[in-house]
Write a structure and sequence with these properties.
The complex is a heterodimer of chains A (326) and B (280).
Chain A (H helix, E strand, L loop, with lengths): L2 H30 L4 H9 L4 H10 L6 H13 L5 E2 L4 E2 H36 L4 H15 L2 H15 L18 H38 L2 H8 L4 H23 L1 H15 L4 H11 L2 H29 L8
Antiparallel strand pairs in A: 1-2
Helix pairs in contact in A: 1-4, 1-13, 2-3, 5-6, 5-8, 5-11, 5-13, 6-8, 7-8, 7-11, 8-10, 8-11, 9-10, 10-13, 11-12, 11-13, 12-13
Chain B lengths: L1 H10 L1 H18 L1 H4 L31 H37 L1 H16 L2 H11 L4 H27 L3 H8 L4 H9 L4 H24 L10 H8 L7 H29 L1 H8 L1
Helix pairs in contact in B: 1-12, 2-4, 2-12, 4-5, 4-7, 4-10, 4-12, 5-7, 6-7, 7-10, 8-9, 10-11, 10-12, 11-12
Chain lengths: 326, 280
């Protein structure tokens, strides 16, 4: 079997395992929730007489033993049925699919920004260790690392939208503007700018701090001395020897933190009314729409796994010594 | 050792600043009732009063509540939730990490797979789901935060225990006939205390950020005034009244910064060799 196929297969097995546990966790959460699911559903549907509750109980198999119910639940999910939102009168899977693209665009852009920015700034700080550039980068990273992400969003809105009027404060595009082509793209881009910066800033701080430490460590290693002794230019030493080796631990951490990045998008999206999963979560929290919340948990877990595979592939791209295996 | 440690900590400018910040926040929480005796939920002045007007240092909110009073009282919730959830998470993390590291084998493998799983799933989403389903209260918030925070610590403790368990003093304890439990608690754990303390101090900071994010989304304890709630409830009037969301946010930022600085200071003081290498 070619190694790439093997890698993807092993990842698939792992993904199925993780998702299996997420599904079981979701199932347990529904059943551990205070109140009987049938009464909750009846309440959500807007009717609560005993006959209707009993009907729901048989309809959803709530009178069956727990393991049978788990089986039914898993069966539904395998078929792509994530439940029904009575609040929105639509299947949860439809709601999630509709919101997924916006979240993917937001988190991916923020991820790239954080990674590129963090690696560049961290390297810059390490190359100027002890000088003012290093101190400035370190202080800014320390501050960004301690700031609540939603508050950064609000303050950016205050400065760039309310006071300066440069960028739109919320939404995905100007409603009713009727742009098309390049204008539409520019419009969406200007709406994306603040959310992406907000979400990316925190992780950029994390990666900057790590990259600085990592680059300092690599720079003191023997192979860097050898490269210097060979008469390599400083630029070559930095890009080919230091950068390439120092970036590896950052990628590992970036993969592990993918879940937090996606969690952060919930906050950012609710600040900027970005029409993604986060906004959906915020509304579901307000309406106590559990089916949607559990669906979001499932879908974001899928996203995290996708991010993990992505970072693993990046790893292989940067370090050819690493082979794609489990 | 302790004197060297204290000296190393005190020589770290950032750590001392962090300690001072956290000390002020703790004093604020302890003396909240003395500083602002009235209930922070009470209307005490005109609504929408800007800072330094109407006798209110940081202005008032939409309902005429004093922002400064809210910040002082909010310190209690942040610290309480930060500390208790960290204690719970440290307990789970150390327990699982120590068992996995000491016994190893299939049990260790299983526990580590379990730990990895908890690191993979989206933390914040799980916290939101748990708190929303079990209705927001101090207990549900602390439980949810502890549940998503223990995993990195468990991995760390496992690594430490794994490297310590083959050392001579542990083998000596085994030869003396000490039980496994005694060896873990009395021989191994005291020797990996420093990384646990460092992570715990950073975990308090993360827990405070998590709590504030929850209250921002409206999932805080409805009976407790908290910083995240203040930012969240004021966001709709951001255009008219910046101070309502600005000051509580600064309070969170400063507290988390202080805790992070302490954590780093502890780390540097516990690992003097690492520190020297880094500055060299």
């Amino acid at each position: 079997m070619p190694p790439m196929l093997q890698f993807l297969l092993s990842r698939l097995v792992k993904a199925v395992l993780v998702l299996g546990v997420v599904v079981i966790l979701n199932f347990l959460l529904i059943h551990a929730a205070p109140g009987d699911p049938a009464t909750v559903m009846a309440g959500e549907a807007g009717a609560a007489d005993q006959a209707f509750v009993d009907q729901l109980r048989t309809q959803f198999g709530l009178d069956q033993p727990l393991y049978v119910q788990l089986g039914t639940y898993v069966g539904h999910i395998v078929q792509g049925d994530l439940g029904f939102s009575f609040r929105q009168q639509r299947p949860v899977a439809d709601l999630l699919l509709e919101r997924l693209p916006a979240t993917v665009v937001l988190t991916l852009s923020a991820f790239v920004l954080a990674l590129v920015g963090g690696v560049a700034l961290g390297l810059l700080a390490a190359l100027n260790v002890g000088k003012w550039a290093d101190s400035a980068i370190t202080v800014v990273a320390l501050l960004s690392y301690a700031t609540p992400i939603y508050w950064v969003g609000l303050m950016l809105v205050l400065v760039f939208s309310v006071n300066l009027g440069w960028l739109p404060a919320f939404g995905y595009e100007t409603i009713g503007a009727g742009y098309s082509g390049v204008e539409k793209l520019a419009d969406i881009g200007s709406h994306m700018f603040l959310p992406v910066v907000t979400l990316g800033l925190f992780y950029m701080a994390v990666y900057t701090r790590m990259m600085r430490a990592s680059a300092l460590e690599v720079a003191s290693m023997d192979f860097v001395k050898t490269a210097r002794a060979k008469g390599q230019t400083e630029w070559n030493i930095v890009t080919r020897h230091v950068l390439r080796n120092a970036i590896l631990p950052i990628l590992t951490v970036a993969g592990i933190q993918a879940g937090q990045l996606i969690g952060g998008s919930i906050l950012v999206e609710s600040v900027f009314a970005w029409p993604g999963l986060g906004r959906l979560t915020f509304d579901a929290v307000l309406q106590r729409d559990y089916q949607v919340l559990l669906g979001v948990f499932f879908v974001t877990s899928v996203l995290v796994i996708a991010f993990n595979i992505l970072t693993d592939l990046l790893y292989v791209l940067i370090d050819p010594r690493v082979e794609i295996t489990t | 050792m302790t004197r060297d440690f204290l000296l190393a900590f005190a020589r770290n400018k950032g750590a001392v600043i962090g300690l001072a910040i956290v000390a002020v926040i703790i004093l604020m929480a302890v003396f909240a009732d003395v500083l602002y005796p009235q209930d922070p939920w009470d209307m005490v002045g005109l609504p929408f009063a800007p800072p330094m007007t109407d006798g209110m240092l940081m202005g008032s909110d939409m309902l005429g509540r004093d922002i400064a009073a809210g910040i002082v009282h909010g310190a209690r919730v942040s610290l309480l939730i930060g500390l208790t959830s960290t204690l719970a998470a440290v307990f789970i993390g150390v327990l699982i990490g120590a068992i996995a590291g000491y016994y190893g084998g299939w049990l260790g493998d299983l526990l580590m797979r379990f730990t990895e799983l908890f690191q993979t799933i989206p933390n914040f989403v799980l916290v939101v789901v748990i708190v929303a389903i079990f209705t927001p209260s101090l207990t549900s918030i602390v439980t949810a935060i502890a549940l998503v925070s223990w995993a990195p610590l468990a991995r760390l403790v496992r690594g430490e225990v794994l490297s310590l368990r083959s050392r001579e003093f542990v083998q000596a304890a085994v030869t003396c006939g000490q039980s496994n439990g005694t060896i873990i608690v009395k021989q191994i754990l005291p020797n990996c205390l420093s990384p646990i303390i460092v992570s715990a101090s950073l975990m308090v900071a993360t827990a405070i950020l998590l709590e504030s994010s929850l209250s921002f989304l409206g999932l805080g304890d409805p009976n407790a005034m908290s910083w995240g709630f203040m930012v969240g409830s004021a966001r709709t009037v951001l255009r008219q009244a910046w101070w309502m969301s600005f000051f509580p946010g600064v309070a969170i930022l400063v507290t988390v910064l202080g805790l992070n600085l302490i954590g780093e200071g502890l780390n540097d003081a516990f690992n003097p060799r690492l520190r020297r290498k880094r500055t060299a």
